[in-house]
Amino acid sequence: MSKLLEINHCRKRFDATRVLEDLSLSVEKGQVLSIIGPSGSGKTTLLRCATLLETMDGGDLIYLGNYAARDEGGTSVYAPPAELQRIRGMFGLVFQNFNLFPHYSVLKNVTEPPILVQHRNPAEVRDQAMALLEQMGLADKADAYPYQLSGGQQQRVSIARALALNPKILFFDEPTSALDPELTGEILRVIRKLAEEKMTMVIVTHEMMFARDVSDWVVFMNEGVIVEQGDPREVIDHPTQERTIQFLRRLQEK
Amino acid sequence: MTILTMIAKMSEGLGRTCAIFFLTLLFSLPLGMLVALLRMSKNRAVSTVTKVYISVLRGTPLMLQLLAVTYGPFYLFGLGVAREKLVPVIIAFALNYAAYFAEIYRGGIESIGRGQYEAAEVLGYSRYQCFLRIILPQVVKRILPSVTNEVVTLVKDTSMAFTVAYQEMFTIGKQIANSQTSFMPFVIAGVFYFLFNAAVAFVMGAFEKRLSYYR
Q1: Based on the structure, what is the number of domains in chain B?
Q2: Tens-digit pLDDT profile for residues B9-66
Q3: N or C: which end of chain A has fewer CB within 10 A?
Q4: Do A89 and B124 touch (CB under 8 A)?
């Protein structure tokens, strides 16, 4: 099975508002998928459903053939907590606002989850964490606290924190949106490097040029459905749907 | 009676004053956390009952609560009044201060952003691990100034024990003031509370400083 993630017929409402409607998506091993679309289109909700931060109302959620949720008669039935916990180990999530733990040093932010959750050897985790920080260009910040770092540095720590758990797939929720424009480059470089290393990733982003360059597949969402998807150069440079054309034109006008 | 004799006599009650102070903290600090968690329970009945508990204990005088706990069993059930008043005094103080601490804890817990919980959840922390390792340490730092306020108030509130004739420092001072028709015992008591609170401020300041390594 090469499908790492499969979402089938996902539906989600918040009270009376339809957020996601019959949305299906799959991600293959090594694939980089970008999700673009206007705010309020349901991109972030989709990511939150995929990472179990929200529950779907209906549809399947499958990681490597393991059902986190199975559609039974139009309602998502979730796996027992222990199974969900096992599935959580398969993915990582990088938040828009980093969400580092402020009372932990950079190193402890990265090392505690593998030691605590995966019960791995502390010395080995420490070595891996230092290697990851090195890779992020932050080896000298290992003993610093998050408040002492720039937004870009904090985001790189949070990427290292997610990678330390050796996830099979990494989700990014608008990883550069909370950053000053001059700091977005360093994050995009890190993600590009991960793509070269064949890390499977799903990226919700507003950076069109970046999405076009780095991803193998791009999905354009609007009002809870996928309007258009395909090769990034096709979708971004030659969109066929009216809504996509409008959205991309508006972005260019900025 | 010389001032020195007064000080010596009042000092005999110091142990009891300290007993009220430390025992109240010992019981009310953890009890307050329990009350805060019940107050935030998703179960409506549990949170409502807790809310009533908090509003009654904060809404009535501590003096009244001391009298109720000490003499209530006698008036209600005809039971004898305990000769050793420490137990009812500590019960009243602990219940009262737990209500205040609970609200401080709740404010602190609710001030921690959702992102911290979500990050911990995605990383695989259990709810218990998340609370103990991620949320609670940050809560402690945020609420420390408010807790200091309560602790300072508690030092002065120990004098309330005079309402049930518990022989702590202030009660003895009041007795001396009456028998000697002197204001001096009150001055001595004032100096004592002031020094006690200077020590409290110093200790709490040291705690705050220890937690100032992050923002």
Answers
A1: 1
A2: 999 999 999 999 999 999 999 999 999 999 999 999 999 999 999 999 999 999 999 9
A3: C
A4: yes
Give long-range contacts, CB 8 A cutoff, 24+ apart: A61-68: A61/A6, A61/A7, A61/A10, A62/A3, A62/A5, A62/A6, A62/A7, A62/A8, A63/A4, A63/A5, A63/A6, A63/A87, A63/A90, A63/A91, A63/A168, A63/A169, A64/A1, A64/A3, A64/A4, A64/A90, A64/A168, A65/A1, A65/A3, A66/A90
Would you say residue B51 lies in a domain?
yes
- List chain A residues with CB under 8 Å of B123: 113, 117, 161-162, 165
pLDDT digits (tens, 9 = 90+) for A78-116: 999 999 999 999 999 999 999 999 999 999 999 999 999
Distant-in-sequence, close-in-space partners of B1: CB < 8 Å, separation ≥ 6? B176, B180, B182
Residue of B nearest to A106 (CA): B214
Distance, in Å, from the CA atom of A33 to the CA atom of B109, rounded to the nearest integer, reads 37
User: Mapping DSSP to helix (H, G, I), strand (E, B) and coil, where does residue B183 land?
Assistant: coil
Alpha-carbon distance values, A19 to A22, A39, A70 (Å): 10, 12, 19
- Is the Cβ pair A113, B125 closer than 8 Å? yes
Residue B63 is part of which domain span?
Answer: 3-111+148-210
Is A113 touching B (CB cutoff 8 A)?
Answer: yes
What is the Cα A38 distance to its own chain's centre? Answer: 17
- Distance CA(B185)–CA(B175), nearest Å, equals 9
| Residue B122 resides in a domain | no
- Tell me the pTM: 0.90
Q: Closest Cα to residue A162, out of A144, A189, A135, A123?
A: A135
What order do you get walking across the sheet with A217-222 strand by strand?
A91-94, A169-173, A200-204, A32-36, A217-222, A225-230
Cite the beta strand spans of A150-206 per DSSP E: 169-173, 200-204
Report yes or no on B138 lying in a domain: no
* Chain A residues with CB-CB distance to B137 below 8 A: 103
Could you tell me the two tokens for A225? 């459905």
User: Nearest 5 degrees, angle CA A129-CA A130-CA A135?
Assistant: 95
B137 part of a folded domain = no
Please state the separation of Cα A233 from the chain's center in Å: 21
CATH code for the domain of B71: 1.10.3720.10
- CB A35, CB A29: distance < 8 Å: no
**CB burial string B131-145: b at 16+ within 10 A, e below:** bebbbbebbebebbe
